[in-house]
Structures are given as structure tokens and as C-alpha cells.
UniProtKB/TrEMBL annotation:
Top-level taxon in the UniProt lineage: Eukaryota
InterPro entries for the chain: Endo/exonu/phosph_ase_sf
SUPFAM superfamilies per record: DNase I-like (SSF56219)
Organism: Brassicogethes aeneus
Lineage start: Eukaryota, Metazoa, Ecdysozoa, Arthropoda, Hexapoda
Protein name: Endonuclease/exonuclease/phosphatase domain-containing protein
Length: 175
């Protein structure tokens, strides 16, 4: 089975390297790369036979390097929006929350009736109770997004955490 799209975070690509990435049967539709810092980034690749997705630059422009790094695509025909977000654990949580809320406000107006999927590495451990978790989940719930992954996404010999997740504003099954 070949997926329709791939969302990546922490791709580590520089802007000038993005076009050199070749992944069989996929095309890069949206990519955020850091300009001054190393590592990080987010991107969305779509299967090359799917033609109806385009980059949503207004959302990508909300990226703040080292705080919230987002790529975004829309399919107006299917009324679908997909965001791939990376938040480094070294950034300011307050700035991340402010930018996330700004993005959600924007898409709630411009893409009001779109089925929206937000996926990424948020570096907020949803297995632990914390003020960051409460604030993060409250904002997502305020915009009618629900968590779709509940099991640990990072497991070591001594720890388990849920830092990566998918959130949707619709109920259909997400693979």
C-alpha cells in the first residue's frame, strides 16, 4: 500500500537542498526549511498522481524558526487541509502557542468547512499531566480538533512518551 501523502518533521533540509530530494512516486508540495539554524523543518509530500493539492503559503509564513515550523497543503476540490508542524523542545512554549492559535484562527475563517488534519512533532508529552499539555490541548479543542494517537510514539528502555500526534476536526478514520 502506497500512502497518498507523507508529512515529515525534522527533515534537516536547507532550502537549496529541497529540490534535490527524490522519493519515488512522490512530489514535494510544501516545505519549510530553516534559514539560520540547523536541523528542524517540516514538509509534505504528495503522491505524484494526485494533482489537486497546493501549498498554503499564508500558513507556512506563520513559521518562526526554532519555535513553530509548519508546512501546509490544501485540496479545494475535496475541501481538505493538511498541516505538518515541528516544535523544538528548545523554543519558547508561549511563542509556539501564540503562533498555533494564530494559524488556527486563520484556517477557521479561510478554510471553515474543510476537513483539517494537523500532524507533527509537538514536543509536548501527552502522556503526562502538565500545564503545557493542558494549554496545548485546550487550544486544539477550542477549534474542534481531537487527538487521534494515544499510545507512546517514542519508547526507550526506561521511558515512553507521546510527543508526535495527529489531530483532526472530523471523525472519519485516519491512517
Amino acid at each position: 500500500m502506497v500512502p497518498d501523502l507523507i508529512c515529515l518533521t525534522e527533515h534537516w533540509l536547507r532550502e537549496e537542498e529541497v529540490d534535490s530530494i527524490v522519493l519515488n512516486h512522490f512530489k514535494m508540495v510544501s516545505c519549510y526549511s530553516r534559514k539560520s539554524m540547523i536541523h528542524g523543518g517540516s514538509c509534505i509530500l504528495i503522491r505524484e498522481d494526485i494533482q489537486d493539492f497546493h501549498e498554503v503559503d499564508e500558513v507556512k509564513q506563520c513559521s518562526i524558526e526554532g519555535q513553530l515550523e509548519v508546512s501546509c497543503v490544501a485540496n479545494k476540490k475535496e475541501r481538505m487541509l493538511i498541516l505538518s508542524i515541528y516544535r523544538t523542545c528548545l523554543g519558547s512554549f508561549d511563542i509556539f502557542i501564540q503562533q498555533l492559535e494564530a494559524i488556527l484562527n486563520f484556517i477557521s475563517v479561510k478554510y471553515l468547512d474543510f476537513k483539517t488534519t494537523i500532524c507533527g512533532d509537538f514536543n509536548v508529552n501527552l502522556l503526562l499531566e502538565s500545564n503545557d499539555k493542558v494549554q496545548f490541548m485546550d487550544i486544539l479543542h477550542n477549534f474542534n480538533f481531537e487527538q487521534r494517537i494515544f499510545q507512546p510514539t517514542r519508547v526507550t528502555k526506561s521511558t515512553a512518551s507521546l510527543l508526535d500526534n495527529i489531530f483532526t476536526n472530523f471523525d472519519q478514520y485516519v491512517q
